[in-house]
Design goal:
Blueprint lengths: L17 E13 L4 E7 L2 E7 L5 H9 L5 E10 L14 E12 L16 H6 L1 H4 L3 H23 L3 E2 L17 E3 L7 E3 L5 H9 L5 E8 L11 E10 L3 H20 L9 E3 H8 L13 E2 L1 H5 L4 H8 L3 E7 L8 H15 L5 E5 L5 E2 L8 H10 L7 E7 L1 H18 L10 E5 L4 E4 L4 E4 L14 H4 L8 E6 L2 E8 L4 H10 L4 H15 L6 E7 H8 L30 H6 L11
Parallel strand pairs: 3-5, 6-9, 11-17
Antiparallel strand pairs: 1-2, 1-4, 2-3, 4-5, 7-8, 9-10, 10-22, 12-13, 13-16, 14-15, 14-16, 17-20, 18-19, 20-21, 21-22
Helix pairs in contact: 4-6, 4-16, 10-12, 14-15
The structure holds one RNA strand.
Length: 592
RNA sequence: GGGGCCGUAGCUCAAUUGGUUAGAGUACUGGACUGUCGAUCCAGUGGUUGCGGGUUCGAGCCCCGUCGGCCUCGCCA
């Protein structure tokens, strides 16, 4: 046995015991005839002392120690001298007086230290991930991830779910995200696709009668990365039979309550609040609004239609809308220059044509370069509509509805962060429900499924499939935490007639549908129960529970924005022999 | 594919905005010191300013290209 305790175990009550600890040398403090060594492992730090009572050999070993050396120290637990306890260490009441010290493995001088104050550049952290993962913050995050996944598994087992693994090598289905492909050696020219999600398999498990299915499933999507998106990520995948939306949401409500209670010490009330998609877009301009703060969007299209300002009235006349938000007390903070930056932000990042603004003066009047285009009464009505008070800043976008949504959502998030409108440690969970079934793809001139083609319409919207696809709402629900989509799911169509109708709207004729999803359509013919489910993005849930701002810090070995693993240098080129076996020729060699 | 920020010692950053020999903290090396815990003190090593061009009497700084990291729009059923 290498050790008797970890570096986080020992307390004053252990005084007098002879113990052996192993770990990494965090720091050493050399006092000549004696030394202090902070010995670190995942469980904590313990101060190990080489005293004048220690042997000359041990002192000599201690003098050899460098940062991140792996050592084993045997000694006696002593209470620290009065006044020398370290309240910042869990083991700070004691220290271990060495009677035997051994270097298990020295360390090359590390490019950075787990304990250093300033975080090194992320490329360096990723290249030497084994050092980065030694940082206590990373260790706490991966422990949190483990704790979350354990509780998820416990919860679903208690509710009689069955954990089923589904294939990683699957079939490419061209809808949706770009697939990662795996060539088949046995079938030259044919490819497997890595799963974007186990969607179709879990539905088939329902047809097979397994009723409650759960899986912690790795998913792959070959799309561009973001702070909250990795090419491979982990979903908590859930599917249930004989359920409607409320049953699935209720199940997840219970899970979130458990996670919040056990990991955050917070009791949340369930059912979680629900808001329709339409309301979310109207009040916040986004289907995953951050509800930790207000600053809701306000529509003044009716006023714009009646005003003299050509930009506003013209937009209203053309069927667009004029909407805005009111940043309380922000007039002084946002100088002309900063407002110019906001204008560039909505133009470049969100496609708006511009940004109109008013500052509310001390006497309640609105000041702005464009104020002269409005009569006083109109300005008063605008201020009233926003409930604007002196010192407030009103920002307005005049454009198509979709553009105002995007631009104002972007503004709202940016301003809230800059104005610190929320407690970054707080969490707000809610459901967004009743998503549209279809989106109109203007480029391709056809309807596309907003979620996926097996999403069931609401019962009361069935008739709209025929005459009002745009107004047709789905049995779909997204779990939103702090402005992030933490998960989403739907009730699936189990009626083949409705499925045919939806395929028809999506421009999939029967032949095409069979070609793509034939195995699922086949399965649905043999007694498919009503079913539905959800998938939660585990990486995002960990990020949110951990109060982190990117998903890479929740993943042991993440990829860079260009989808590289800097530690292993994947992806890499392969031997021509490997390619030949797979009957693959590379058209263009990447320059390297 | 588009927009933006960044790249200077092992690491984190600075360099009076184009001007002498590119600095600091930390790490590292050597030395001193038993009561430190960001130990302290003394001394020292350490630079292709990411890379390649260009402008200039002169470039870390300006221009073009390129590589890499991050943020973001598109994209992500």
């Amino acid at each position: 046995m290498y050790r008797t305790h970890t570096c986080g175990d020992l307390r004053a009550t252990d005084s007098g015991k002879t113990v052996t600890l192993c770990g990494w040398v965090d720091t050493t403090r050399d006092h000549g005839k004696g030394m202090f060594i902070d010995l670190r492992d995942r469980f904590g730090v313990t101060q190990v002392c080489v005293t004048p009572d220690s042997s000359a050999a041990d002192l000599a070993v201690a003098k050899e120690l460098g940062r991140e050396f792996v050592i084993r120290a045997t000694g006696t637990v002593h209470p620290r001298p009065a006044g020398q306890e370290n309240p910042r260490l869990a083991t700070g009441e004691i220290e271990v007086h060495v009677t035997s010290l051994a270097i298990l493995n020295p360390s090359a001088t590390p490019p950075f230290l787990p304990g250093q104050k300033e975080l090194p550049g992320e490329d360096l952290r990723l290249k030497h991930r084994y050092l980065d993962l030694r940082r206590p913050k990373m260790q706490r995050t991966l422990e949190l991830r483990s704790a979350i996944i354990k509780r998820m598994r416990d919860y679903f087992e208690q509710h009689r779910f069955i954990d089923v693994e589904t294939p990683i090598l699957g079939r490419s289905t061209p809808e949706g995200a770009r697939d990662y492909l795996v060539p088949s050696r046995v079938h030259p020219g044919s490819f497997y696709a890595l799963p974007q999600s186990p969607q179709l398999y879990k539905q088939i498990m329902m047809v097979a009668g397994y009723d409650r299915y759960v899986q912690v499933a790795r998913c792959f999507r070959d799309e561009d990365l973001r702070a909250d998106r990795q090419p491979e990520f982990t979903q908590l995948d859930v599917e249930m039979s004989f359920v409607d939306s409320d049953d699935v949401m209720g199940m997840i409500d219970g899970l979130m309550a458990k996670l919040m209670r056990e990991l955050k010490g917070v009791e949340i009330t369930t059912p979680l609040p629900r808001m329709t998609y339409d309301e979310a877009m109207r009040r916040f301009g986004h289907d995953a609004p951050d509800l930790r703060y207000g600053m809701e969007l306000v529509d003044i299209t009716d006023l714009a239609a009646a005003c003299d300002f050509r930009v506003f009235r013209g937009t209203a006349d053309e069927g667009g809308c004029v909407r805005g938000l009111c940043a309380i007390g922000a007039a002084e903070r946002y100088s002309r220059k900063l407002i110019d930056e906001l204008t560039e932000f909505v133009r470049n990042d969100h496609g708006a044509k511009g940004l109109a603004w008013f500052k509310v003066e001390a006497d309640g009047t609105l000041a702005s370069p464009i104020a002269k285009n409005f009569d006083g009464a109109m300005l008063t009505r605008i201020a009233e509509r926003f409930s604007a008070k002196p010192g407030d800043l009103i920002l307005l976008v005049a454009d198509a509805w979709e553009v105002t949504c995007r631009a104002l959502n972007g503004l709202r998030r940016r301003l809230a962060a800059e104005l610190k409108l929320y407690d970054p440690d707080s969490m707000h969970l809610s459901w967004i429900v009743e998503f549209p079934m279809f989106d109109w793809d203007a480029e391709e001139g056809r309807w596309v499924a907003m979620h996926h083609p097996f999403t069931a319409p609401r019962d009361q919207d069935l008739a709209k499939l025929a005459d009002d696809p745009k107004g047709c709402r789905a049995k779909a629900y997204d779990l939103v935490i702090n402005g992030y989509e933490a998960g989403g799911g739907t009730i699936r169509i189990h009626d083949s007639k409705i499925q045919q109708q939806v395929f028809g709207l999506l421009g999939l004729d029967e032949e095409e549908a069979v070609r793509r999803f034939g195995f699922l359509l086949d399965a649905l013919r043999y007694g498919a129960p009503p079913h539905g489910g959800i998938a939660l993005g585990i990486d995002r849930v960990v990020m949110l529970f951990g109060g982190l701002d990117n998903i890479r810090d929740c993943i042991a070995f993440p990829k860079t924005q260009r989808a590289m693993d800097l530690m292993t240098e994947a992806p890499n080129t392969v031997d021509p022999k490997q390619l030949a076996e797979l009957a693959i020729a590379v058209l263009r060699q990447s320059k390297s």
